[in-house]
Amino acid sequence: MSKFSQPSMDSTVAPITEQNGQEETKAVSTARKPSKGGWNAAIFIIFVEMALRFSYYGLAGNLITYLTNDLHQSTSTAIKNINTWVGVSAIFPIFGAIVADSLLGRFKTILLSTTIYFIGMALLTVSVSVVPTHYREAVFFIALYILAVGEGGHKPCVQTFAADQFDEEKPEEKAAKSSFFNWWYLGIVVGASSAILVVIYIQDNLGWTAGIGILAGALGVALFIFLTGIKRYRKQGPVGSPFTMVAQVFVAATRKRRVVRTRQGCCICYETGGTDIEGQPRKRTLAATNQFRTVGIMVFDGVISVNMATFNGFLDKAMIIDVLDASSKTRNPWRLCSLNQVEEVKLVLRLLPIWLSCLMFTVVIVQTHTLFIKQGSTMTRSIGPNFQVPPASFQSLVGLTILFSIPLYERVFIPAARKITGHRTGITMLQRIGIGLFLSVVEMVVAALVESKRVSIAREHGLMDTPKATIPMSVWWILPQYMISGISDVFTVVGLQELFYDQMPESMRSMGAAAYISVTGLGSFFNTAIITVVQATTSGSGGILLGNNLNRAHVDYFYWILAALSALNFCVYLWAANGFVYKKVEGEKPQEGRELIGLR
Known about the structure:
Layout: E1 3-4, E2 17-18, H1 39-60, H2 63-70, H3 75-104, H4 106-127, H5 133-163, H6 171-205, H7 208-228, H8 242-255, E3 269-270, E4 298-300, E5 303-305, H9 323-326, E6 330-331, H10 339-356, H11 359-368, H12 371-377, E7 379-380, H13 396-421, H14 429-460, E8 471-474, H15 479-502, H16 509-538, H17 555-578
């Protein structure tokens, strides 16, 4: 139960009850079934995600080839169409998270969205096989955006649903959850790499009908696996719109923006414990933080008090019990909020700068399945006398790098780093993300140097105006940029997944997953914007960047631009991460060796 007190030598104020006519739900932790959840449940969800990623990357990994070769789109148009689709697919999870948290719950949302995804893939199979040529492009893009809707419901829920199988109140399961994120990402990579190695080869050599048909079959398998484990899952019901809680804090703080003291001089609302909601894990009470405020808080007998003359924190004013609140028998949630509510809003606000400073990282990721493929398609790809490696298959190098890197990270890097830093996980989540961001700068520098070498060889052999000719340069020259991409993913992608799960309010974890995914979407749109700007800037010079002739498209210049922007972005990230404050929970000690402030 929440307690609202007004300490005073003369008088007290009776406890304020909730306004909505509903009693706070009693704890239901005793009703949980301990036999559910854990790795026995999470493993089913990991296999489901592997099948879904197999389907997604089997399509996205070679999409630029289909758009340019079969639908005859120009390179720049195809890249923009891919960026738009990837962007929309990554923005829709925000709406999927709202549906899951407010209406359906994560389990039902995953089931519904996976079904929609299967329908979209079936339509895509039809579009590349039996649909007449003059209607094919329209049907193809309709199917693509049906897939985007399915992604929107699946992506924000599936990882969160899997992580929810580990109970944070049990030390052994809490420890397992940290490793879970590494092995989760490893499962994704296995699914994606399998698709890139097998399905893309089938698409290039046997046809797109067979290739996409395999992807549709994989989705059917995913649905079957998900339903097989239905009795093992810990399922959580919807908790209501997360935006309502955020809005209440801002409205209450705005209403009291001019309040400087209460009737008795000092008093705020304090929630002594998290409120348990049926079907949800027990909520934990967040500790007060000094961020977004100017003074500390004094705690006396479970009641938080401050001197209102020096109380200037804007959000904290939502907790002030003024004369109107004190005289009311019911709490108006749009005037008076608990400490937990205010601290949860602070958690969201702290993540925003980190979220924004990771946009350039996803711009770099986009190059691995667009320009890197076009770059490799012009190079010598022969293995033996009769076999040529499909250019899109080189994306599997990212996956293979991750397959080797994650076990090394778990078994070698973490123990070694733990001895140096004292952190339980070796390095903090923000340090992990920062290392990956730095590597993305290195990746673009390496890609620019390799592309300069490729163009110089084309010039030496008089192939500058023969765009379809094979450059006498081994495709293995692009191996380093793919490997660096894989290593940077191990650090930044997994770090972002863990950060946005761990640091979001418990009732907003689906939204946290959606926020992490939306970085990819906005990064794709940002990449399109950069291409548009550089093409408009260079169109009058006679040497337009990213034109159809890759030998004269100055792709190396584009890579240098991305390297410079990524370096600037890395500096912004360091500034944002250095001021970050990790979540603090009442009654919990900080993790061993873990500092509460940013990168330190």
